[in-house]
Structures are given as C-alpha cells and as structure tokens.
Amino acid sequence: MDTTAKAHWDQVYGNRDEAELTWFEEMPEISASLISAYAKPDAHVIDIGAGASRLVDLLITRGYQRLHCLDLSQAGLDVSRARLGDKAQSVDWIVADVTRWTPDPGLYALWHDRAAFHFLTDPDQRAAYVAVMAAALQIGGHAVIMSFALDGPERCSGLPVQRYDPATLAAMLDAQAPGAFALVASQMHAHHTPSANTQAFQISVFRRVG
Prior knowledge:
Layout: H1 3-15, H2 29-38, E1 44-48, H3 55-61, E2 66-71, H4 74-84, E3 92-95, E4 108-114, H5 123-136, E5 137-148, E6 155-156, E7 159-160, H6 166-176, E8 181-192, E9 198-208
Parallel strand pairs: 1-2, 1-4, 2-3, 4-5
Antiparallel strand pairs: 5-9, 6-7, 8-9
Helix pairs in contact: 1-4
C-alpha cells in the first residue's frame, strides 16, 4: 500500500467534515441511476474510492444486497460505516490501494468509480488499475468511470489529476487492455461543490467484452 497516499487521504477525511469535501453529494443520484440501469439489486457492485460517499446509503435503500466499498483511506470508510450504523454490517469494506488489490476474479457485475481514477497520473498506476478492473469484472459486466473532463480542474485536494473525455478514456483503456472494454454510454456533468464552484466531469460507461 502507498503509505504516503494513504496518509494524505486519511488527513483529508480526518480534517474536514463530510459535507465540506469538494466532491460531496447529498444525493448521488447520477451514480445510483447508472448502477440501477446496468446492475440488478442482487448483483455484486463495487464502489472504488468510496470514502465517505453517500452512494452506499442510497443503494441500500434501493435494495442492493451485495455492496463492496473500497478506499485507500480507513478514515474515509469509517465515516460511512458510522453514518450507516447497523446497516454497515451488510457491506464489504475494503481498505486497499486499488492498483495493488487482488479481487475475486469475475465477481463483480458493476465497477463504479467517481473521481478516483483521475488521480492516477503515472502510466504504470493506470495500467495496474485497468488490469485489476478487467480481472474483477465478469464478462458482460459494466464499469462506470467518472473523472474531471478536459475543461475540468487540473488539481484536487492538493494533488494533480489526469483529465479525460469519453474518447480519450476509451482509448487509454483499450491501450492497456486491448479489446476488453467497449464504450456503451457517456455524458457530461457539471458538479457544484459545497463552496459553490462548478467542476466539469465526464461520465463513461464501459462493458467488459473480452
């Protein structure tokens, strides 16, 4: 595990209230709707970079039974666990660096990542991430990847990011795992932060095809 990155994110979650984080969403409806469109409630769904996100709460209320939340930061996941109370026992909480994580092969029907992948600015990290995602997803499963768009911020939480549009993201995945993923849907999104700033996001959905 990258202890420097882990310490950074533990500090971010430890020093700020959940609702003060720039990526905070009271109701992560776009993510939940996309998950509902591509995965049934009894499917295994994993949220990469879950942190303190309220997505897990929303999915539980909509009947999802096999939820997995992965984050580098124990502190971030602890916020969600405390908020959920007894409901947290039904969730698989994974503290790991996704680029070094070994998933159960083909277990997941849906891989969701809102604003974690774009922090991987090193090509080797991106290659490792794609390899893990390919291993984790079942054939026919889907990956929802949200990142800053080409006109989005260049940094977040003091760190540089890699920006994408759906075409460049699809090309990057294909370069790392040729023929493994097909782009099936995309959209742009303007996220409004708690401090009333606007961040441009791209949202891409890929199908695991081979």
